[in-house]
Amino acid sequence: MDAALADPETGRRRQRMGLLARASAAELEAAWAALDVPPEVTDLRGPETGLVMLTGRIGGDGARFNLGEATVSRSTVRLASGRIGFGQLLGSDRDRARRAAVFDALAGTEEGGSVVERLCAAVEARLIDERRRQESETASTRVDFFTLVRGED
Amino acid sequence: MYVAVKGGEAAIDNAHRLLADRRRGDRSLPAISEAQIAEQLSLAVDRVMAEASLYDPGLAALAIRQARGDMIEAIFILRAYRTTLPRFGISRPLDSRAMRIERRVSATYKDLPGGQLLGPTFDYTHRLLDPTLSGDPEVPEPSRRDGGVGGLARVSDILDGESLIEMEADEGAEPGDITRMPQEFPLSRAERLQSLARGDEGFLLALAYSTQRGYGRTHPFVGEIRIGLATVEIDIPELGFSVAIGEVRVTECQMVNQFKGSAERPPQFTRGYGLVFGQSERKAMAMSLCDRALRAAEYGEEITAPAQDEEFVISHCDNVEATGFVEHLKLPHYVDFQAELGLVRRLRAAWQERGVVSEAEEGDAPIGEAAQ
């Protein structure tokens, strides 16, 4: 499974799917509205909500253990062109999972490729922004120790 | 013997209708929304997710609302909901080293790389009730500081640099899953950690406290606590690679405990580990203390205290199981109790009879003694 990660096309798709998983309902809706023609979609699986067991590592880096489950929604779709898309994200929002699957399938196509690129760029910019803000807020709570000089010398 | 008794349907319906009314409370006040609970009572949401063993802030908020704020009831509801869903798979292990840090403190190193990041903590507040919070006062935006947080080395890595601490090995074994297999003692450490991660915060806190007071002492230091957002990655078998599906907030506690050595190995610090859903520092600390106490057998320590007794701790830490068994006592036990009534009446009759007999035999001997 890890061998596939070396392929640059796979790398791009992984990144795109990761961003589509984080796209808000409003972002997906706006991108949907930007499509010239709403695509014809066949549901191959779902959209459905289920569980994924989240695992951790003992001590942070040792053997795996089961931490607890999380809700996950997923969808697999086929477009009229035959292209297949996968959507999967944390939470119970099946509509978002289905839209994410459609945009995954539309990536790189003439009818939707540019919309998907713009959507992913917008999501990425938002995530970077949120991350920077949160990081700078956390950094403001860093303790700067100083030593009080005591005595004559 | 069980005897089916019918009746009570109307009373039950009306009781639930009354519950719905009391849950809503004064209609002149606005109803509380799940979004408000998730945003403004987020640590309650975190606790429900952790002990229900299901990460979903929206559903946890709904459960809290439905349970009128009764946390164990909310945990029960969410745990029950979990059983209605199919399992799609198992995630890649969360990487706490790479997580987006919201808080990170160490009690063992003042100047550790990355520094002490306090984050949104109750520590150093004066715990004075704040009347100015009433209403909807303006809350200033948080301060910011450039330079970011950076990659934060673990305290265990620092100690490992000198081999001063035991390191965990990954043999690649598939971890046991307590939700899929009946528990059989002794458990693996992985199964214990799964139980503790969903265990009742109050129960684990009390046990952790007991170890500090001498009942299974382990001499702990907080090597490090970190709270942050970890990326969840799952494998997509159809595609042959893994993808990120979002982030979960977790709290990790690395407890550093007093040393163990042997003929083969020089003394090293030992470790207790806690990892919990959400911002749950107290729980993560209690978990790490209990984890270390439960490793007593592994280190050849004498097992003398409740916190070291795996079967005792694990069998009683689940508050859904505990509340089920305790609360079932209020359900009708009419027939059982009739049997007990009959028994105590027979015992009393026998006692009276013996008393009368011994009085006749021994004259004025007190009845109480005769009954023995």
TrEMBL record, chain A:
Assigned keywords, A-Z: Lyase
Domain of life assignment: Bacteria
Any matching Pfam family: PhnG
Gene: phnG
InterPro entries referenced in this protein's UniProt entry, alphabetically: Phosphonate_metab_PhnG
Family matches, as NCBIfam families: PhnG_redo
GO molecular function annotations of the record: lyase activity
Name of the molecule in the record: Phosphonate C-P lyase system protein PhnG
A biological process from GO: organic phosphonate transport
From TrEMBL, chain B:
Domain of life: Bacteria
InterPro entries on file: PhnI (IPR008773)
UniProt entry keywords in alphabetical sequence: Lyase
Any Gene Ontology biological process: organic phosphonate metabolic process
GO terms assigned for molecular function: lyase activity
Any matching Pfam family: PhnI
Ranges for region Disordered: 132-151
Protein name: Carbon-phosphorus lyase complex subunit PhnI
